[in-house]
Amino acid sequence: VPLLGKMTDIDFILRRGVSEIIPEKEFVDRLNEGPPLRLKMGFDPSKPDIHLGHVVGLRKLRQLQDIGHKVILIVGDWTAQIGDPSGRSATRPMISREEVVENAKTYTAQFFKVVDRARTDVVWQSEWFGKFGLEDVIKLASVFTTAQILAREDFSVRYAQGHPISMSELMYPLLQAYDSVAIQADVEFGGTDQKFNVLAGRQLQQSWGYSPQICFFVPVIPGTDGFVKMSKSLDNYIGIDESPVDMYGKIMSIPDHLVWMYLEVLTDVSESDLVKMKVAVEGNHLNPLEVKKTLAKQLVNTFHGFDASEQATENFENVYQRRNAPEEIPCIEIKSESGIINVVLTRFLLEYDLVDSRSEAKRLLTQGGIQVNGQKIESDECVLEAGSVLKIGRHKWARIVVVDP
Amino acid sequence: VPLLGKMTDIDFILRRGVSEIIPEKEFVDRLNEGPPLRLKMGFDPSKPDIHLGHVVGLRKLRQLQDIGHKVILIVGDWTAQIGDPSGRSATRPMISREEVVENAKTYTAQFFKVVDRARTDVVWQSEWFGKFGLEDVIKLASVFTTAQILAREDFSVRYAQGHPISMSELMYPLLQAYDSVAIQADVEFGGTDQKFNVLAGRQLQQSWGYSPQICFFVPVIPGTDGFVKMSKSLDNYIGIDESPVDMYGKIMSIPDHLVWMYLEVLTDVSESDLVKMKVAVEGNHLNPLEVKKTLAKQLVNTFHGFDASEQATENFENVYQRRNAPEEIPCIEIKSESGIINVVLTRFLLEYDLVDSRSEAKRLLTQGGIQVNGQKIESDECVLEAGSVLKIGRHKWARIVVVDP
Fold first, then answer.
1. What DSSP element (H or E) covers B190?
2. Alpha-carbon gap, residue A140 to A180, rounded angstroms
3. If pLDDT is split at 50, 70 and 90, which confidence band does A302 have?
4. B147 and A137: CB-CB below 8 Å?
5. Which residue of A123, A346, B106, B145 pairs with B48 in a disulfide if CB–CB is 3.0 to 4.6 A?
6. Mean pLDDT in residue range B55-74
7. ipTM beyond 0.85?
């Protein structure tokens, strides 16, 4: 895993791709001294596939493993029988024991692409819930008030709307909290949307007389649509088990505004390199498409290795950027020191006789009839560089050649 | 138990002291044919004492036993650990195992004063809840929605007021409902205030694929104050284990409007006798105090036997009705065919020179300075009878003697 596990700088762990740590000071103290921390990570075996949204937290686990801490991965075979009701308006069908076992295999195979298997214990909830009696349930339930549990956002919304919430669903956060007691977790990780559950674990440990876990929250990232939380059910996800070509292609399809966030939370590209790239893009010295290609290549590299990332890049360039380009394309020579040039496209096309009039150029632009490197251009202001292939309308082509002025 | 278990008339069982039977037709059918019914009665061993409020339902059990049905008495040793939250605003402290055992002894000793021990099975919740696992709890909880449980009146009030309801308290109605599944109850009994819990048992049996129990509701009777539900915590109760003298005295202290209701739900006095007594009182041929004495004597007879009831009556008459009366009391002869006379007291007293003026009589009446048979008189309209002892102010006495006109 070439791009993970290299950064052992505590400050990097504490800042990069982190939303909130409760309480942060205690966490820093315990990182610096004391025995290795037990890092709790649970997974819902009804959802076996890991996507980039999960990877944000898994990277944190890996970074902490690399400085000596230990991951306890909990197979949620009991909570899966209830189903986490988050964001759903109806009760989920329970899954069978066989499915749980099968899905746990699928999950761990993906999990250990990011997390260090050697520093991970895998435990099953059945180790403690299999012998959990009514007395234990009553004791557990007595720690929480009904109002507190119903305050969880998904519950409160459904309750207010009069949608049914099964009594068994209310038990989900209680059982998940009890996991922290059972494994004596020192730190639990979750997206900011898991705040309720993670804090419940902390509260339960305290009422059980244990040292309360640190709650470590990572950002929830939007999916490929650019707005809604990445999730399989919304089909806006990028699974880490997807083929190099698919993964690369999906990254290339995300809106530009996501690229920097993904680089921030999903790669180890240094802060200073990120700043340099941003400056270059803002100064029109770097095409944003190239930044996106960097992200895509890095992620394919992470999950499939260097060779796969090279091949995926080449494939993308062949299939998309040069798609259908004729072998011989007329060249347009432009002068540029930096190798790139900013143009007002409709003027540029008229200047080089690629359209008959500025208004024709504008109409083509509006209709999506102009492509640069296989991507439709929507803005009249555009960056071209050496090798850029322009397609104007159905049949006109041009390739940019840069000459030193 | 002389006054119980005599009435085997189905109509008496269905009508007398009954609020609602769901579904009534099915109940009648199953009374008339089929195997003996299993009559569920649970008790909360944190409340070991039985008072007249409970007796209303226990009499129904006894009547049904007398026509061949069977009582299953459930010792609620598990639900007692949660505590029925009804009507409380805070969580009850759990009681110890030793207390449960001790209280079960106390309870059954009282229970079998009304219910036939020979046709009763006593079972403990621990028989099924002792081996109840998390899987069972989840299955049980999945039958009910949160809104349904929170609709229970005490919960909804507390929730609306922002008072804490422990999650464990929500389990109380679920566990009580499961009792019906565990013992395969055919009929469950409860006061009308238990409607929620009893119907929950019916629902659960259905979802478990069992034949749903019949729900048999009896009236909740006011306590000695005459208005609020009889309960130990409000100290307006008459316990069936109280001494004959105390029981008799407490009955004599209840407001007159309760007497008919108590006779209806707590005795076997026939409908026709009740009607006769009502007519006599309304026609001023019978002093309401005598009706109350009939009730008191009957109840002491029920719980302590005939001799005790005779002694309690005599004691009451000695201590209260003739209290402090001097041996020689001046007699007032009045003419009456029926043996009783209706008087306007203030006029009557003036007529027989027991007061100096009507206004003095009125003042005494207002201040509670006039007694008939040891009871303060508040209304100017009053019934006197042969032997009635009047006390006017501190020192004036008179006894009524009736002569045939």
1. strand B187-191
2. 12
3. very high
4. no
5. B106
6. 94
7. no
